């Protein structure tokens, strides 16, 4: 019985040391955050199309969050960034029209754990592309 307990203790200590020194896989975390941001923009566009009302997307650079508001300024959705940070410059916000088009074109830049990520918006059909 003592041998079994001693073996379990040694294995437990080795596992603790191994788990603590394992490198974190930040690539998947950044990928998930970028996907969530893209999904959030698509939600805003879909809501504008479904309700036939304009929806405003605003970027809060101090609290690092993205907000969807109705055309009347009512807050509908908020996404707080966990991995990425919104960088200064670029779009401060834009509007998805009731037909899904955007009213502005430009770029929103993020710093995702040292990796630069840009969302480039086009006016036609509310399209955007992600540059990494």
UniProtKB/TrEMBL annotation:
The keyword Signal is annotated on this UniProt entry: yes
BP GO annotations: establishment of competence for transformation
Signal sequence annotation: 1-21
Source superkingdom: Bacteria
Keywords: Signal
Xref: InterPro entries: ComGD
This protein's name: Competence protein ComGD
């Amino acid at each position: 019985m003592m041998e079994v307990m001693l073996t379990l203790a040694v294995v437990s200590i080795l596992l603790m040391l191994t788990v603590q020194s394992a490198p974190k896989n930040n690539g998947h975390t950044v990928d998930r955050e970028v996907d969530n941001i893209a999904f959030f923009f698509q939600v805003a566009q879909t809501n504008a199309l479904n309700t036939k009302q304009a929806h405003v997307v605003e970027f809060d650079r101090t609290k690092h969050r993205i907000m969807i508001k109705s055309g009347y300024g009512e807050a509908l959705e908020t996404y707080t960034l966990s991995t990425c940070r919104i960088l200064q410059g670029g779009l401060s916000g834009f509007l998805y029209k009731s037909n899904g088009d955007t009213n502005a074109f430009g770029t929103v830049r993020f710093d995702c754990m040292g990796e630069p990520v840009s969302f480039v918006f086009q006016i036609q059909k509310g399209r955007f592309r992600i540059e990494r």
